[in-house]
């Protein structure tokens, strides 16, 4: 139960940070830098693919944390 409370508090922290005007600018920048809407596949370099997908997955995690909570 305590862990669930901490997770909910952390999600609120993410929302406070990223729902501010500055946070929205940062999130918009991360969408571009972390390849949210483009492929991360590199035909010639699997390490580059893994690196780029790691960036993308971080952005997806942040967006999941700030997504409105459904009861």
How would you describe this structure to a colleague?
The protein contains three helices and no strands. It has helices spanning 2-18, 21-33, 46-66. It has one domain (2-66). The chain is an all-alpha fold and 71 residues long. The longest helix is centred in the last third of the chain and has 21 residues, at 46-66.
What letter string, H or E per element, gives the SSE order?
A: HHH
Bulk shape: flat
For the record, the count of structural domains works out to 1
Averaging pLDDT over every residue, what do you get? 94
Q: What proportion of the residues form beta strands (DSSP E)?
A: under 5%
Largest sheet: none
Counted beta strands: 0
Q: Which percent range fits the helix content?
A: over 70%
Radius of gyration: 15 Å
N- to C-terminal separation? 17 Å
The number of distinct helices, counting runs of at least 4 residues, comes to: 3
Oligomer: single chain
**What class, by secondary structure content?**
mainly alpha
Q: Which runs of at least 5 residues are low in confidence (pLDDT < 50)? A: none
């Amino acid at each position: 139960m305590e862990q669930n409370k901490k997770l909910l508090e952390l999600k609120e922290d993410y929302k406070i940070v990223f729902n501010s005007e500055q946070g929205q600018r940062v999130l918009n920048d991360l969408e571009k830098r972390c390849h949210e809407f483009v492929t991360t596949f590199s035909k010639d370099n699997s390490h580059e693919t893994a690196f780029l997908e790691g960036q993308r997955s971080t952005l997806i995690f942040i967006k999941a944390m700030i997504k409105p909570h459904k009861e």
